[in-house]
Amino acid sequence: MPYTAVMRAAIGRMRSMLVDLGLPRQDPRFAEHGDHTPAPDAPLVLVACSGGRDSMALAAVAGIVCASWGIRCGAVVVDHRLQEHSDEVAQSAARRCCGLGLDPVAVVPVEVSGDGHGVEAAARDARYRALADTARRESAECVLLAHTGDDQAETVLMDVLRSSGLDSLAGMPRIVERDGVRFARPFLRLTRADTTGICEDLGITWWDDPTNGDHMAADEPLPDDFPLRSRVRHTLIPYLNAFAGGDIVSRFCDGAELASIEKSYLDGIAESVAAHAVTFAGDSCGSVDGDCELLWIDAKALAREPRAIRLRVIAHALAAVGIEAGFRHVDAVDRLISQWHGQGAVALPSGHSAFRRKHVIRVCQDGLHANR
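The line above is the sequence of tRNA(Ile)-lysidine synthase; the predicted structure tokens follow.
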């Protein structure tokens, strides 16, 4: 059947992503007309599929492109078990993926336990662990995620509401490595309307998550007990569209792409600086004067760098040891470098603190620097 313009665009995005991932057409014969079966040892790509319209469209497009390039394509359906009959929804999504010719297709149930950061964050962490575990077990080259431009705009707005700075404007990267597995987002320049159209064109059914609020009237704001992303999607973005008099999603996506380029450049410089300015204790805490310390920062080495790089080095170092520090915490540690006058320890989240002795800033568990 002839493909629509949206379908052709989606196929183009998928091909471009595979090339960027180092997964070109596996053999010249796959450029010829006719059906060709990928080799049993051909590279494997996995699609993270929830059964929603975005991931079903991704599964369909990935299956078509991978088959035409001699690449195996499978799917992983994560059952978060947070809603009634979630197992039935997961199995239904898996059957649809099998119907699209994807193989292997795995349904992975997970436990979502609250860790003080909210159910959404806990579910996301559990989902990524399950996807990464499955990818490693299947020796997959990557996992494809179905985030669209709408998701990108929502992410930027959510990050701006939660934090500040360049990173909050950069949104989700096209390709990122997590837990030793590459995750890729081919559809960041498509929209939810595009994925809906793809499903309709191909006759694919999908499941709508009730927490998205799609059943609510468009002019009725979602209640506060709905997830933040759903409220941004249902209430905030339509308001911004009306306020700006145009498509705000594409503007956020353009800005995110530019911010991501700049972020990558700054991250590269920060990584180079951190290589000689930051030392990690490793699996076991370091011991200085009987104290258990997680990392050391060379204040003199960082003092020579612009503030933008200092802040990025500090933030990345704290994150690397599991400290979710906000700007005020990172800024306070930076003042131990730029405005050093013998001040005391800086209190950090999760029961940590930072203290400077001579030219070294030490980060350790709260209380260990007491009486210094």
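Note on the example: The chain has a mean pLDDT of 91. The chain has twelve helices and twelve strands.
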